Structure formats: C-alpha cells, structure tokens
Amino acid sequence: MILAVQSAVPVAAFARMAKGQVRCYSAPLDMVIPASKKKYIPSSGTYPKGFLVSGTHVGVKASNTKFPDLALITSETPCSAAAVFTTNKFQAAPVQVSKDTLKKRQGRGIRSVVINSGCANAVTGKGGLEDAVSMGAKVDECNGLDEPSTIVMSTGVIGQRLPIKKILNMIPFAHTNLSSTHDAWLTTARAICTTDTFPKLLSRTFTLPSSPGRTYSLAGMTKGAGMIHPNMATLLGVLCTDAPIEPSALQSLLTHAVSRSFNSISVDGDTSTNDTVALLANGAAGGAPITSTSSNDYTAMQDILTSFAQSLSQLVVRDGEGATKFVTVRVQNSPDYESARLIASTIARSPLVKTALYGRDANWGRILCAIGYTQGVAPGTVVPERTSVSFRPVDGSPVLKLLVNGEPEKVDEERASAILQDEDLEIVVDLGGGEKGQSGLGGEEAVYWFCDFSHEYVTINGDYRT
C-alpha cells in the first residue's frame, strides 16, 4: 500500500504538469486566436479621419517567421500628442527617446508612432538609445520630415539589442502600405502583441457640446497579457482621435483617463520598463479646438476618453497570462478616492486572493486580510466593525454577502461555488465611511480590474525567452 501511494504521487504530478503544457489560455504557437477570445475582436470599426496604419512582418524575434511585428500609425497632418510612461527606474530606450521628443516639441507636430514587438530594447545602453532614435528618424524620413516627429515604442524581451537593420529596412515598406481600412487597423493591433492571445482594438464615434451635429471618432489599440500592474505595466497603447485638442488639454485628459483605466488594472503585480500609452489628436474632423480644462467640451471629452480607455484596458485583463477569471473589485464609501484605490489595488495583486478565485474558493478571509494590510490609507478608513464584503454575480441575481459590518455571514457554499464558475465576477468592499458614516450613504469609490493566478501563468513565464 505504501508503495502504491508513493508511485501515485509523481504520476499525478506529471499529469498536472502535462495538462499545464496544453496552454488553454495562452497564445498557441501558430497564433490562432482561441475560440473563447474571438468575441473580443471587432469585425468592423469607425476610425478617425486622417490616420493611416500598417502592420508588417520583420522577424524581430528569430522564432517569428511570418507574423506582423512592426506597427506604424501615421497622421496625414501634424497632431497634438500626449503620453503617460512607466515609472520603472530602468526605463527602456524608446521610453527615454519618446519622452525627449514630446518635451522638445511641447506636444505639437507629432506625425507618427512606430512600434516593434519581440524585443523591448530595454537595458541596452547607448546602443539601444541610438536604435530607438534611428527608428523614429527613419519614419520621419518617410514622412518627408527632417526633425524628430515620431513616438517610438518597443515590447518583448529585456536586455537584448534590436535587429535594427532589419527594422530600418522594413519601415519604408510599412509606410508604403499605410491604409485606413478596418483590416489594416486590426493587423496593426496584431503587430504589437507578444504573449497576447488576441489583438486588442476598439473604436467609437462621439459628439461634443460645441458641435452637436459634428461626428468625431476615437480609436485605440493596446497590448499586454503579463507583467501588468501600475504604474504602468508591460503594456503599450495608442489612441487616436480626429477631434481638435490643444496639447495642454490633451495631456490632462490622458492623465485622468489612464489613472482610471490602464493604471487601474493588474494581472500579476509587476511593472515593466517599456510601458507607454500615447494619445494623438489631429483635428481632422474640424470644429472648435478644446483649449481650456474648464470648458464643457473638455468635461465631455474627459468622460468619453476615460470610458473608452477603461474598455480598452479591460481587454488586457481578459487576456491575462493563464487567466480564467475577469474580476472587478469595487471599494465603496471610502473617506477619499486614493485610499479606496490603494485598497482595490492591494486586493487585485494579492496572490492568495487570485489563487482562491482560480480554485473557485469563496475564501473571503483573504480579501479581508488584503484590506487590513493595505499601506498608505488615510487614518480611520478601515474600521473592522463597519467593513462589509460581498460577491456580486454578473447575471443580476442578488449579491452574496460574506461579511456585514465586521460580522461573518453564513455563506451558502454551493451558491458561492456556482458564482465562481462564471468567467466574470465583481467583489464589493463597503468601508461604511460615507457622508453619514454608514454603509451605502455616500463617500468615494474606486474600481480595479484584475484576473486570477493559474498553473498556466507559471508555465508561460517559465519559458518566456524560449
């Protein structure tokens, strides 16, 4: 009997390991999009006037023999531009170069964004900086410009030099193939992917109060599946609009939107060296430019851009490496927004919370523990006697209360397990710190989006460089 038990253990372990290699949730080697992810890919779009895009195969990574890995986004006219970059101290060469370009141009006269996947061009010294500069310069040359007017981005393995000659040789080809079609936008979104299982692309139309009869368009693409946590993540994003917005207003709009979208998502708690989200506005649709942060147009644009950025960033979480769950954590009735955001962030990156969700275990004690050790919250924010935690099903059925004002509820484990079978879940944390100090009566709210931790995540990242 003892021998039987001993032999069964490695067999079971081997079975689990072999099952992990199937990679149900990661990008297959042939890059075929998993059936479960196809619903997130748009079949059509409405794209901003004056922008042209292309996705081209270069072969930046030796193993990539046919898939697009060079993205080019260009405006036919100069743009106002703004960007938010990683706060990681080891900032990649393209981050440094793009920050310098935007600073020197004061956010004006930007024409293009060029992005390569397969190599991050990070921690590559002076040579890496020269490579990033040469990528931008080559695009500027194709645009007939003799001064830096291109934002450069890279994503992939850290610590390796770009095959820069291959990239520079293909940029003119990429420029020749610029197009405004939906297929071109989708191919371009595909070109910036690394471990992503699907290209992430959205577009929408909108109006502004000053020109109710004029239609504007907003489009965006992003990439990211791992190394995701503010500020920011292994994440690149490009948003384009044909609305007229001055650079000073544009940077304010983007900063606000990113803080409530790309900086409110988490996959694994890691922050990368390359993260960049850029916003370009060429004004091609006409109308009065947004110049003041106090105008009605600015307020409307802030809501539009923030909502759009949230939808786009959520696609990153849905494609989290090895993820099986998309989780919204909503922290309510906090005395201030930042404290609520810190608590939501702590829950979102807790390995114990994430693994419990993967195991479909309603272990609310782990959520409570994360709330309790959150650092930096305002005094009096977390009071055990007025803290409540619940699961809110996405099907509209009643919430499942786990803790009410510090008192544990008798949890229906069968219902809890059924709720956790679904891909989507919302965790609601009520701090009971509203205007009247009672649950549900006001106060600040912060929302975060994250995913679970699975065996698959370890498999993907264990052999990332191979």
Shape: globular
Overall pLDDT metric = 87
Distance between the termini: 41 Å
Order of helices and strands: HEEHEHEHHEEEHEEHEHHHEEEHEEH
Query: Number of DSSP strands?
Result: 15
> What is the C-alpha radius of gyration, as a whole number of Å?
23 Å
* Largest sheet entry: 8 strands, mixed
How big a fraction of the residues is strand?
Answer: 15-25%
Low-confidence stretches: 1-27, 226-233, 434-441
User: How many distinct helices?
Assistant: 12
Structural class: alpha+beta
Helical fraction: 25-40%
Provide the descriptors you would attach to this structure in a database record:
seven-stranded mixed sheet, 466 residues, 12 helices, single chain, eight-stranded mixed sheet, 15 strands, disordered N terminus, globular, alpha+beta
List the helices and strands and how they pair.
Blueprint: H1 2-20, E1 51-56, E2 70-85, H2 93-105, E3 110-119, H3 125-142, E4 150-157, H4 164-176, H5 182-191, E5 200-208, E6 211-223, E7 236-241, H6 247-259, E8 265-266, E9 276-281, H7 296-318, E10 326-334, H8 337-348, H9 351-358, H10 364-373, E11 388-392, E12 400-404, E13 407-408, H11 413-419, E14 424-430, E15 444-451, H12 455-462
